[in-house]
Amino acid sequence: SHARRKIFLPRITLSRLLGLVILLSAACAFILLAGLLDAPIRGSSGHSAAVGERRGGSRGKRYADYQVRSDKVEASAPGENGAGVMLRGEELNRSEILFKKEAFNIIASDMISLQRSIPDIRDPKCKELQYDVDLPSASVVIIFHNEAWSSLLRTVWSVLNRSPPEYLREIILLDDKSDREELGEKLEKYLAENFDPNVVRLVRCKERQGLISARVRGAEAAVGDVLIFLDSHCEANVGWLEPILSHIKHNPKTMVCPMIDHISDQSIGYSSSGDSSTGGFWWSLHFKWISQQASEIKRRKSNVEPYRLEPLLQRIKDNPKHMLCPNVDAINDKSMSYSLNGGSASGAFTWSLHFTWESVKDDPRRKLSTDPIRSPTMAGGLFAAGRKWFFEVGAYDPGMDVWGGENLEISFRVWMCHGALEFIPCSRVGHIFRSSHPYTFTGRDGVKNKDTHGINSARLAEVWMDDYKRLFYFHRQELYKQRDQLGDLTERKALREKLKCNNFKWYLDNVIPEKFIPDEDVQVYGQAKNPQSGLCLDMLGKDEKNILNIGVYGCQGKSTAQMFSLSKAGEIRREEYCADVSAHATDGSHVKMYPCHGKETQKWTFVQDGQIKHTESGMCMDAVGLKNGDDIKVYKCDDSAVSQKWNFDHSMYV
Ligand code: UD2
Ligand code: MN
Description:
Elements: H1 14-35, E1 60-61, H2 89-102, H3 106-111, E2 131-132, E3 138-144, H4 149-161, E4 168-175, H5 185-194, E5 200-204, H6 211-221, E6 226-230, E7 234-236, H7 241-250, E8 254-263, E9 270-271, E10 277-281, E11 287-291, H8 294-301, H9 309-318, E12 330-331, E13 338-339, E14 345-349, E15 355-359, E16 373-374, E17 383-386, H10 387-392, H11 406-416, E18 420-432, H12 452-464, H13 469-475, H14 477-481, H15 490-498, H16 504-510, E19 522-526, E20 528-530, E21 535-538, E22 548-549, E23 551-554, E24 564-567, E25 572-573, E26 577-580, E27 589-590, E28 592-595, E29 604-606, E30 612-614, E31 619-622, E32 633-636, E33 647-648
Parallel strand pairs: 3-4, 3-6, 4-5, 8-18
Antiparallel strand pairs: 1-2, 6-17, 7-18, 8-9, 10-11, 12-13, 14-15, 16-18, 19-24, 20-21, 20-33, 21-23, 22-28, 24-25, 26-28, 27-32, 29-30, 31-32
Helix pairs in contact: 11-12
This protein binds uridine-diphosphate-N-acetylgalactosamine and manganese (II) ion.
Residues 231, 233, 381, 431 line the site of manganese (II) ion.
């Protein structure tokens, strides 16, 4: 039967033929080019990923591997190459006691060299990037209040050791009125002995400012072209500075963040945080890491480089045994119109040995791994901006105190006021993420244990969020009642006017289109009540940040724990988590909240005063036999069962 198999002739369409011809001629051209490459290439201008960064024939110099060290440390010394330190016995006990004061493992930190090495975990493509020689100068502003000695100075050394001196104008150590002995004269002496006083400058505040105003004080003292803010427990990684300066040079109204790697608060080990996360937010105005939005992935993919000769020459120079093809665009043989092929095709072959186009599936990131990623928000501590523009766009709200909220304020503001916020995958800086703070929350007014995050966030909501502030106040109803005590907002509102900023809806639509708005464009929302038991669906005191069973509880009126929406897509959801039941649910199966994924296990149908029915399994939410605090379950749908009836009350507004 094999012999009788039909001979299969591929259908050769005109456009494929055309494609082939173009491809072949392109291949010839580049084989020729490859042959010319023994001659040195002068004035080579940029690598593919640096498109838009470099114009004309400016010459690049490679600094990616720049590193100096003033002391010699054995590779096996504690913490070298970013390793964590494991303590035992007495040391472990002491570190646990000190953890309460420092909020991280100070014993481990003290054992590690202030100039330890850390692994260069950038995407290897980052090392191929070239930057202009004439980059703007940087002022690195490190603010601190009662920071531990070793973590503070390791931050300083990491910046000095991994920044080309010609671009590092200065490091400003801004002491926000620390009262630790060692941060007094001892620190001044250490700085004087180790550093050029024009490069490492200590500036002290007379009164404690709180981190937000402290940053502005630091910025005011700075003279460099670009401000780069860091927390006082960071480690800058290899090549961190150049991509920041280059991107700001070419995009002066962009605020940029390095990728923030993790330094363990327990072991002080350095590890990559990957490069797929960007910043989002909860409606309670807490920061949240989010994965890149689909719209941003699409934008970056379609950011196809126009045909240019230089990237190909540079690439072949670096990879002499590679053969390269440009993207083959189509010129219509009848109309002669030119159309882009979109850059998503690569070549393959059929077993009949014909060439075929194939869409690129292997690595969806391809060379995008080095391209800046737009982010709706930033975490807050590590970012850079042109110095003049930082002030033009409003620095920070001087009415904000101690800690919290300023990161979302600056993010919303920058986007709304015609700037942008981007993460730079090739710039990496580690940060010790601590679960508490080694300082008090006493406000400038002397009030102790202030809810500064709440008050700062309410200020931001009032100035920037228009009607959407309702979603914040829904979480913070006590603040809504005290909203006349937030302090003066006139200046910040005037700033918004002066800069003719877009409104918050524009921000939601254009910058974070995937953000779920619980009371807009949904079928129903509010408190879901079962009339038989009188109980409402409830999060049962658990946070919406974990997979959990939901249950029922006495109806509370306007309670965030009882707020659910039925989205257009049929999800019973909160902000990010959706009610989920397996396709094989049986009588008594639990309903779990899972991160929303849009698939069938999270689809429900509902009509007011009717059943909440899981479409895939055909089961219904049922309050039969449930008491306060019990988990909700699904049972076979029964039209006559009042325990399966629900109504949503649309109670969202405060
Ligand atoms: C995150 C940010 C932090 C800030 C905060 C929200 C990162 C990695 N960190 O919290 O920079 O945006 O969210 O407000 O994104 N400090 C002062 N004066 C004070 C209190 C703190 O100078 O009154 C310093 C402190 O020494 C540190 C910096 O401010 O260098 C940030 O404080 P943090 O590390 O406690 O904040 P973090 O990282 O939890
Ligand atoms: Mn920090």
